[in-house]
Structures are given as C-alpha cells and as structure tokens.
Specification:
Elements (H helix, E strand, L loop, with lengths): L3 H22 L1 E2 L6 E2 L1 H5 L5 H20 L3 H18 L4 H9 L1 H13 L13 H21 L1
Antiparallel strand pairs: 1-2
Helix pairs in contact: 1-3, 1-6, 3-4, 3-6, 4-5, 4-6, 5-7
C-alpha cells in the first residue's frame, strides 16, 4: 500500500510528465517520428523565446526542490537547462537543437530516477543524433530554397 509520500511523488511525476510532454514532444511532424513541443516553438523568437523557455524549465527544478531532490540532481537539471538555452541561441541550428535536446523531459527523468533509485529503475537515455541531424538538414534545405527563391 503506497504511503502519502509515495502518492505525492507519483502525483509530482505525473504533473511533470504532462508538462514535459507539452513543452518537449506534443507535436508530431506528419509522416515522421519527429516530435517537438511548445518550447522549441517559443524558441523561434530570437533570444526572448529562449529566455521564456528557460523560465518554463524552472518549473521542473521547482518541483525537484519541493520534493527534496539532492543538490547533485538539481545541478544536473540546471546544466540541462543551460545546455538547451545556449544551444537554442545558435542561429538556425539552435531551433533544431531545442526540438531534439528536450531538457524538461531529461530533467523529469532525472527526478524520476532520484525518487525511484531504491527500486533500481534507471532506464537508459541516449541523445537522438539522427533526429537532430535530420532536422538540421531540413532547416538547411529550407534555407537554401529560400536563398534560391529570393
């Protein structure tokens, strides 16, 4: 029978899963397996959008602090948020990086691993390089077509 702490942790993870889904992967590119969320769309607005995405990402860190996550977990979360922020600042390729890196999903997984560490549940995560390269090529091709047409 789950304790009130376990129920609170599950509730927190459920909220963060929904948040991560909407910010990182709720939109699918038709006829592909490429998914992205609101965060990369907001990031299309130069600099301001990247700051807004960073502020949105603070929600996951807030929840981690609320449940008492280790400082090492919080540092990893901050590192992920900064990687996505600075990666998103790169012209053209930054938007593709935002769509692929998915810092909120990574941070939710970090918190999940922390909360369920005693159960030994640590699913592997790998960076989707092929998706990132595919998006970069699409952006490059679109830029080339725009250049030719103008």
């Amino acid at each position: 029978m789950p304790t009130s702490t376990q129920s609170a942790h599950r509730s927190t993870l459920d909220r963060l899963d929904r948040f991560s889904y909407y910010t990182d992967s709720n939109i699918r590119v038709p006829f592909t397996n490429i998914r992205f969320g609101l965060s990369p769309l907001i990031g299309l607005i130069p600099v301001i959008g990247d700051f807004a995405g960073l502020i949105l990402s603070l929600y996951v860190l807030y929840e981690a602090r609320k449940v008492g996550a280790d400082r090492s977990v919080q540092r990893k979360m901050i590192r992920n948020m900064l990687i996505e922020f600075f990666g998103g600042l790169l012209p053209l390729f930054g938007d593709a990086f935002d769509a692929v890196y998915k810092a909120n999903t990574k941070n939710t997984q970090l918190l999940r691993n922390y909360l369920y560490k005693e159960l030994g549940e640590e699913p592997p995560w790998t960076f989707p390089w092929f998706t990132f390269l595919g998006i970069c090529l699409l952006i490059l091709a679109a830029s080339f077509l725009i250049y030719i047409l103008i």
